[in-house]
Amino acid sequence: MNTELLKEIGLTDGETKVYIALFKIGSSSTGNIVKESKVHSSKVYPILDRLIEKGLVSFIKEGKKTIYSANPPTTIMSYLDKRQDKIQEQKKQAQSLVKELELLSTINRAKTEATVFKGAKGLKEAYTLATKNLKKGEKVYSMYLPPLENRLRTFFRNFVLKLLNEYKVEQYMLFNEPSPESEFLSQFKDLKIRIGVPQEYESPAEVCVYGDNTVISTTGSNEHITLLIKNKEISDSFRNQFMAFWKQDAFLSRGDDSLIRAHKKTYDKLKRGEEYLVLGIPPYQPQEHHDYWMEDHVKRAKAGIKCRLLFNQGTDKKILANRNSYGDCDSRYMPTDIKTPSYIFIYKNTVVMSIAKKDPIVIEIENQEIADSYRAYFEAFWKQTKPFKK
pLDDT digits over 192-221, tens only? Predict the structure, then answer.
């Protein structure tokens, strides 16, 4: 058997050994997999996780045991199709990178004015200079906006409102995460605001584009260094980068706090009397997550937001009873024992999927049709359930 081919298409040596072992021994717990594959027991779990993520292996629970199986060999073709899709996406990104590199090569040839400002006073001066020649109706862009250091908060709010009311420019703002500034400015309908930058793209420095001027500033830290660049090619590059983020309706992030952050920014858009749904909540959650959701349900009940939750079978009955003790919350068991690696939050026009693992993956999709589709999926399950009895 040409196992080298498996390595050539992206499997590691350990993944190849475990994958072949599963075909030889069939469905099995990790003990037999270790014996057959001769892979160290400490490495077999992460290897199985990666094979599951690649769609080549699946698992079921039998009591306390986890039984792993190799998916049909034809799934190798599906895996290759996904790799091909990823390669195509990387080609698109490479095209963008080529353009940026070409831009960098022309910066020295273009007439560029760059000034460095230090301290809070210098930061304010840089923003004033960058915007003094703006014209009515012009579009300006701010991205990677972090929570502000306290002494800049009043300046930032007044600055944005001055651009809105006096300059009458069209402002687009992309915040890293919910913050006092984003909450304050969200009340102004003429400001176009979105919250959430993919975690891998978050930056401690905000970037603002005003015509041919670009301001790069560390507004979220105590020591403020601000760079004001006057160059059309550079401002066009950042403007294009901003629009690429603004137009996309799907974000992927990783980390233990990624689900909570995604929930916060989407949940904050709900109004009194509205509802969110959660499908397929796993039986186990880290204690810090459990504590967060308890506090969150108290706030939700006070705000008059409703929710319905479908927990996977096997979840402790105390958890369901606890959730149902909060106002306008109805928690029930899934009607069938489905083992899924992800659970799904459904809001008005947004779906948040969390894949619970060591390094959790969270996918946010802001799309009305997709949200409606998952809502119908939830309702189909909900109709098969009965209210939880303590």
Answer: 988 776 655 666 678 999 999 999 987 655
Locate all alpha helices (DSSP H) within 108-165, ordered by sequence: 119-131, 150-162
Structure-block tokens of residue 133: 């020649």
In Å, how far are 185, 203, 319, 321, 362 from 290, measured between CA atoms?
31, 29, 9, 14, 17
**Helix (H/G/I), strand (E/B), else coil: 304:** coil
Dist. CA 352–CA 347, nearest whole Å: 8
CA angle 289-292-293, nearest 5°? 90
**Contacts for 94 with CB less than 8 Å, ≥ 6 apart:** none
Query: Which of 113, 133, 125, 117 has its CA nearest to residue 227?
Result: 117
Name the strand (E) or helix (H) holding 140.
Answer: strand 139-145
> pLDDT band at 35, cuts 50/70/90?
very high
* C-beta neighbour count of 141 within 10 angstroms: 23
Chain length of the chain: 390
Query: What is the phi-psi region of residue 26: left when phi exceeds 0, alpha when psi lies from -120 to 50, beta otherwise?
Result: left
| SS3 label, residue 319 | helix
C-alpha span between 57 and 361 (Å, rounded): 18
H or E element that contains 70: strand 65-70
Instruction: Write the pLDDT tens digit of every residue in 273-327.
Output: 999 999 988 877 667 777 888 888 988 999 999 999 999 888 888 888 888 888 8
- The model scores a pTM over 0.85: no
Mean pLDDT of the chain: 84
pLDDT digits (tens, 9 = 90+) for 174-187: 887 777 888 888 88
